[in-house]
Amino acid sequence: MRNENSHKSELISQLLYGDCFKVISKKNEWLQIATITDDYSGWIDYKQTQLITKSEAEDISFTINSYSSSLVDYIETFENKLISLVLGSNVGATKFLGHGFKGSIIKGKKPKSNLLKTASLYLHSPYLWGGKTPMGIDCSGLTQMIYRINGYNIPRDAAQQVKLGETLSFIDESEVGDLAFFDDEDDNITHVGLLLGNNYILHAHGEVRIDRIDQTGIYNVKTKRHSHNLRIIKKLI
């Protein structure tokens, strides 16, 4: 998904297999869209899209949604072609698209403890602004995908995610799977990470990594300094 209708425009997010959207407008080969699950808008090239009905899109997104749980997998088309998939692709769409999938899936709302298992699959993935896959991912894309795969839809950006859930006063009150948010000098929320317990946090910064966290923020043991300023901790589930 691009900020404007050009391949040179900023990447702001990504669509994975099975992600559904509504079309807002069209300009040449570009569609301005808003995603069904989180109402995130941007521009995409129309060539990798397929038209379905509104009810089908809602069924795929909210009813029969199930996600591939391997780092890389594939589907088989009705033409016997193989299409590669990445972790978190909504293979519930195969029912409507005439595709076959035999890989491992995760479906429905899972216990909060399962967030850690999913998070570990993204460890050491390279940082990519706007990315949502193990091949490249940003901080809020990471937390959104971890929650999404386990059955919880949360918004795309950190500044939206911070509006959810219950505020915690101290790190010691948090559980594995809670989210910590960080701000810049202008008090804007610019970063988010998943708390792992025992004062550790998983977040995307250069790569998906594990660092220490305290009441000041994220502490990088290697550089021996704080890299992010802690603003608030939220319990979403």
Overview of the structural elements:
With 237 residues, this protein is of the alpha+beta class. It has two domains: 21-106, no CATH class; 114-235, endopeptidase domain like (from Nostoc punctiforme) (endopeptidase fold (from Nostoc punctiforme), Alpha-Beta Complex), CATH 3.90.1720.10. It has five helices and 16 strands. It has a six-stranded antiparallel barrel. The longest helix has 11 residues, at 139-149. It is globular and about 55 Å long. It starts with 20 loop residues before the first strand and ends with a strand.
Rg, nearest Å: 18 Å
CATH architecture of the largest domain: Alpha-Beta Complex
Q: Strand order within the widest sheet?
A: 11-12-13-14-15-16
CATH superfamily heading of the largest domain:
endopeptidase domain like (from Nostoc punctiforme)
Q: What is the CATH first-level class name of the largest domain?
A: Alpha Beta
Order of helices and strands: EEEHEEEHEHEEHHEEEEEEE
Write the CATH fold name of the largest domain: endopeptidase fold (from Nostoc punctiforme)
Q: How many domains make up the coordinates?
A: 2
Flag low-confidence runs. none
Q: What overall form do the CA principal axes indicate? A: globular
Largest sheet: 6 strands, antiparallel, barrel
Count of helix runs? 5
**Estimated helix fraction:** 10-25%
Tell me how many strands there are: 16
Main structural class = alpha+beta
Q: Output mean pLDDT.
A: 95
